[in-house]
Design a protein that fits this description.
single chain; binds iron/sulfur cluster; alpha/beta
Length: 254
């Protein structure tokens, strides 16, 4: 039986990715390349809390509905609006949303040891919660994939300004990571949503441009950065959950 936990990436693909040529491609070209080279071991990672993931899902579905896959992590602390969107996607696109959950024993141990709201006490405890509720399930989701698709954009936050169209994701075993909207602006994303009637999280209309777990997300105020409502009590350079940026790269680890 083959080992599915390690990605199978050819030298030709690695050379192509490292050349950076995809930085001049459109999202459609990037995704078509992804389908051609990795399906069925390619999937979109969507939080159902930002319009970027929904735009990519819509583009993927238009290009190749049969091969389109989407997974998500249910941390157990998501708002009802996010669950509602997952079900809307199942209906509209007639596709399965592959939901991954945290290890219940790890959650139980963490909560018994540190309480339910540990994330407010320190960055280290917040990262521990993200590690157990998000990062570990993500690693399980990725274990059967050679490549994944994410909705990162360069202008979202200081932690994302060096994102490329396609990258070798050393944080996750050298898988290939596609960021088809890497150079889009927020306005381009919202224009696409409007033009194609893409379903999005209902909380965006209430001042939440980026929706994560309920206790760690607040609405933003006028003039604030679009990710200012995520872990708002922390410094901007710390505001990542360990999925896209390693904690070592942000400073101290857990
Ligand atoms: S965002 Fe908050 S509740 Fe969700 S996993 Fe991270 S620390 Fe825990």
């Amino acid at each position: 039986m083959s080992d599915h936990s390690h990605p199978r990436i050819s030298e030709d693909i690695l050379a192509q990715v490292k050349s950076g040529e995809m930085d001049s491609w459109t999202p459609e070209q990037i995704l078509r390349w992804g389908f051609e080279n990795f399906s069925p071991r390619l999937s979109l990672s969507a939080s159902f809390g930002s319009p970027e993931g929904m735009v990519i899902l819509d583009i993927m579905h238009k290009i190749n509905p049969d091969q389109s896959r989407v997974f998500t992590i249910d941390t157990g602390r998501l708002p009802q609006e996010t669950y509602n969107l997952m079900d809307r996607v199942r209906d509209r696109y007639a596709m399965e949303v592959e939901v991954y959950f945290p290890d219940p024993e790890a959650v139980q141990k963490m909560v018994r040891g540190h309480g339910l709201n540990l994330f407010y006490e320190s960055t280290e405890k917040r990262r521990l919660c993200c590690q157990i509720r998000k990062v570990e399930p993500l690693e399980r989701a990725l274990s059967g994939l050679d490549a994944w698709v994410a909705g990162l954009r360069r202008d979202q936050n200081v932690t994302r300004e060096n994102v490329s169209a396609v990258e070798v994701d050393d944080l996750h075993g050298g898988r290939i990571k596609l960021n088809p909207l890497f150079n889009w602006t927020r306005d381009q994303v919202l224009d696409y949503v409007k033009q194609h009637s893409v379903p999005v999280n209902a909380l965006h209309k209430e001042g939440y441009p980026s929706v994560g777990c309920t206790p760690c997300t607040r609405a933003i105020r006028e003039g604030e950065d679009e990710r200012a409502g995520r872990w708002w009590w922390e410094q901007a350079e710390d505001r990542e959950c360990g999925i896209h940026v390693g904690y070592e790269e942000q400073g101290s680890g857990i």
